[in-house]
Design a protein that fits this description.
By secondary structure, the protein is of the alpha/beta class. The protein contains ten helices and 41 strands. Strands 8, 9, 10, 12, 13, 15, 17 and 19 form an eight-stranded mixed β-sheet that branches. Strands 1, 2, 3, 4, 5, 6 and 7 form a seven-stranded mixed β-sheet that branches. Strands 28, 29, 30, 32, 33, 36 and 39 form a seven-stranded mixed β-sheet that branches. It starts with a helix and ends in a 5-residue tail after the last strand.
């Protein structure tokens, strides 16, 4: 039964008041400027009506942020009701396929729910991330006002063509009006598992921004076209602005305009760009761009150059995964970076980080960069797992006092020297992990090592010790000098000797303290290690296929050979 209008107005006013209370900041009398606290407020609501009203008011108050990003806040909380609208399995199977939003759904007020079959607790959640981005006339402010439901479904299906436990991952969107029994399937995407690997293999999880990029055209379906010499660019109107969602025509340079038919370009939600533009080498991003969606430039294997405009605020998951950028100069004002957005690699030779970025997500610069050191700006608070995990070309990193969260598998398994203020959380973390660190009051006080070449050897000097980074010669019988740059050679870094077919032997200096993991990756090489204390820090310090180690009896190198069943020959140290 319909409520009287004055009662609805009073109810909405009270809920709005609750909303304001819920998102108050921790300082008395000071409201939060952004969306902090909204998720907790939603989870604390006792009714679906309360949750919908709170979501609606937030979607209006933060319309621009949701239109161009806002992914840092998780809005898919457990729904306080709505279980009766989740279809049975057979209903999903019998759903009617639709390539676009049926006419009868347009401007209908809808509830959005998330049916996650991969959730062990099987709890129905609000699809808040979807709801707040729907056109305003389609957002139901209460259960009574709702005329239908959107159901975002996530589930796995087993593959029979693999050995072991292997699954496809699926995302699908369904819709039903309450005055109809017809369930429509509006969207479906399947992510296949990797071709090989260990343990259970599953297709990757789609980030909310990437998922929205696929669903968005159903609801915001005004298409704009900008013609270029290589082919058209397609934009979808999102409200105040538009998003680039498709590119046709291969090209070496993608020049994205600042506007399309008068609408500013605020977002990029590209899919399959690597396939459409296999020759892409350079991208020009316009001022006014606010967000880059998940996997927008993923797999662009020739992409070397991208600028990041001052207006950019968010970069989605895996946005540049597989793109070998040579320079990474992130703009001041950038607020969020998704997981595996910039894995890094050997070709990356310049990195500039903004002071506005508070957290580095999973896999940021996992493969490092071809730079000797990295300085994290003051204000960074979180380092996600696998940050600089494989960084063979880096020697040291400065971590400020402000970093308090450390993910798993950080900093190249401890081979990077850490500089941080005495007593900082990073210093305590380094002690606990057994990582080498040096007390350093500020970034300015940290050494600035550089790469230098002497003969056939590229090296860096840190704290008075030379570190051999790369052998540049052609092989044969190689002798590593005792000193480089006037400093004793103390370490052989990862990949220093790699894939050299003509390499016969390597004679190392007696002063050498450490041979790092994967330092010598050559078949059938004789390695002479005269130092009685030289440590091999990994089972893979020397590639053992046909290799022979010559070292003093009882030395760490000798013990390493015994454990690995590598051929060893007694060789006394130099006297």
């Amino acid at each position: 039964m319909k409520q009287h209008q004055h009662f609805l107005s009073f109810k909405r006013l009270m809920l709005l008041f609750l909303c304001v209370l819920c998102v108050m900041g921790s300082v008395p009398g000071q409201a939060a400027d952004g969306l902090d606290g909204l998720r907790d407020a939603l989870a604390g609501m006792a009714s679906l009506d309360g949750q919908l009203a709170l979501l609606y008011e937030a979607s209006v108050a933060h319309a621009e942020e949701f239109e161009t990003g806002g992914w840092q806040v998780e809005l898919n909380v457990e729904a306080a009701g709505g279980q009766e609208w989740i279809p049975a399995e057979e209903a999903y199977d019998a759903a009617k396929k639709a390539d676009s939003l049926p006419e009868q759904f347009k401007n209908k007020r809808l509830i959005a729910l998330y049916d996650d079959n991969d959730d062990d607790e099987k709890k129905v959640r609000l699809a808040g991330d979807l709801y707040v981005r729907l056109p305003e006339p389609m957002r139901a402010r209460s259960v009574e006002e709702a005329e239908g439901v959107l159901i975002l479904r996530h589930y796995l299906t087993r593959r029979s063509d693999y050995i072991g436990s292997v699954f496809n991952r699926h995302y699908a969107l369904y819709a039903r009006l309450f005055d109809s029994d017809t369930l429509y399937q509006l969207y479906h995407d399947t992510i296949t598992p990797p071709s090989s690997g260990f343990g259970t293999l599953v297709g990757y999880s789609m980030s909310p921004s990437l998922l929205w990029a696929g669903i968005q055209p159903l609801f915001l379906n005004r298409i704009l076209t900008v013609e270029t010499a290589e082919g058209p660019l397609y934009f979808n109107v999102t409200g105040r602005g538009c998003t680039l969602y498709k590119v046709e025509g291969d090209r070496e340079v993608l020049d994205i305009p600042a506007e399309a038919e008068g609408y500013p370009v605020t977002d990029i939600t590209l899919r399959n760009l690597a396939k459409a533009c296999p020759s892409l080498q350079e991208v020009h991003l316009p001022e006014g761009l606010v967000s880059i969606g998940g996997r927008a430039f993923a797999g662009c294997e020739r992409l070397r150059t991208v600028n990041f405009p001052s207006t950019l605020r968010a970069i989605g998951d895996e946005a540049f995964d597989g793109a070998p950028l040579e320079e990474l100069s992130l703009n001041e004002g950038l607020e969020t970076i998704g997981e595996d957005a910039f894995p890094g690699g050997d070709v990356l030779h310049s990195v500039t980080l903004p002071s506005t970025l508070k957290a580095y997500s999973y896999g940021f610069l996992e493969r490092g960069a071809h730079i000797p050191y990295l300085i994290l700006p003051e204000g960074v608070e979180r380092l996600g797992s696998y940050f600089l995990y494989i960084a063979p070309n880096m020697l040291c990193v400065y971590i400020p006092q402000t970093v308090t969260y450390f993910g798993d598998c950080l900093l190249n398994s401890g081979n990077l020297r850490i500089y941080t203020p005495e007593g900082s959380p990073a210093a305590e973390w380094a002690k606990k992990k057994g990582y080498g660190y040096t007390p350093c009051p500020s970034p300015e006080a940290m050494p600035r090592p550089a790469y230098t070449t002497e003969g056939d050897f590229e090296y860096g000097v840190l704290e008075g010790e030379a570190i051999l980074m790369r052998y540049l010669g052609n092989g044969g019988e190689v002798t590593v000098p005792t000193e480089l740059g006037g400093c004793p050679v103390k370490r052989i870094r990862e990949y220093a000797f790699s894939s050299l077919k003509n390499l016969q032997s390597i004679t190392l200096p007696a002063c050498l303290a450490e041979i790092e993991s994967m330092a010598i990756l050559c078949d059938g090489v004789h390695v002479y290690i005269p130092g009685a204390e030289t440590a091999l820090t990994s089972p893979l310090s020397i590639h053992s296929d046909g290799s022979v180690v010559h070292a003093p009896e009882g030395s760490p190198a000798h013990q390493w050979c015994l454990k690995r069943e590598v051929e060893w020959v007694a060789w006394p140290p130099e006297r």
